[in-house]
Amino acid sequence: MHPIRNVIDGVPRLVWGQSGENTFAGALAAATLPTRHRVTYRTILGVTGLAFQVRWYEGGESRWAPRDRFRAYDRELEAARRATGWALDVEFDPNDRLSSSMARIRPSIDMGIPVLTLDPSHHTAVVFGYDEGRVVMREYANPESSVERDPAELPRYAVFVGRRHRPLSTSEGALEGLRIAIRQWQGAGEVPECKLGRAAYAQWAEDLRGAEGLDALLRRELFTVNWLQFSLLADARSHAGPFLREVAPFFPKPIVKRLFQAAEIYDEVEASLTACMRRKDAFFGTWSEKGYDDWTEEVRRSEAAVLHDAWAKEEEAIQVLGGLIDSIAPRQAA
User: What H or E segment, with its residue span, contains residue 312?
Assistant: First the structure.
């Protein structure tokens, strides 16, 4: 006899192009949807600084693609905790299996609160039910239906959404995200083996310009990481301007003007990035109907130029946001 499944109703499917390209933010938004304190994908990107972030990985097992690139890091998790009020308690051990966390996963599901984890592709997923010996998951890789998996076959990464505490106000949460954005633009942050902000743009463009000198295997790896990172960047910037406008009413009028000014700049960046997708002439992702054989040196030079243009515009936006934070009295910025 098949064991009775205990599942939480109302957890939406995770779908590329609909749930958001950042799988941590997409999974967290999906996990909170059945609760009384749902948090939107855009809010998560904004308060964690991810809407304004660019990162470029180099190092570790693979030159450009770390195994855990789709999980959240400490700074982002702490910002999400403070702004949303959710506990987001993490159990992470790359040498262990998710089965070691089942003693906490089952009670969380029983209370109606999903748990985040990683799927076999290391994208963030949502555990929203369990059978005896198995977990029931929403995954980006399987958007049409839920998936049952043996937790002994999954890495031990569990984010327990948990009980809520009092969240930051809307303005405080937004300021937290903007401080993170400015810090990371300057290259600081707790993202292992990653370049951030202007350094990320510079390294990304440099790698594209040097791709001709790589062996075929590395160049193909760069091709894949290039369009995946571009998808993440374009998605993030599509929420940067709208997030700033959403939070603007919670600030004094002089601050609102600066928020709208920065929002307009990020809109310009987003328009430039999405134009590449519309024209299908660069960053050949699944939407482009083109592939590796079309990725010529001329195309890579064009991509590097797009990145330099975005870099220049975002320098301007960061200056506006930095001036905004400097203009806020210490008692408001605390």
Answer: helix 297-327
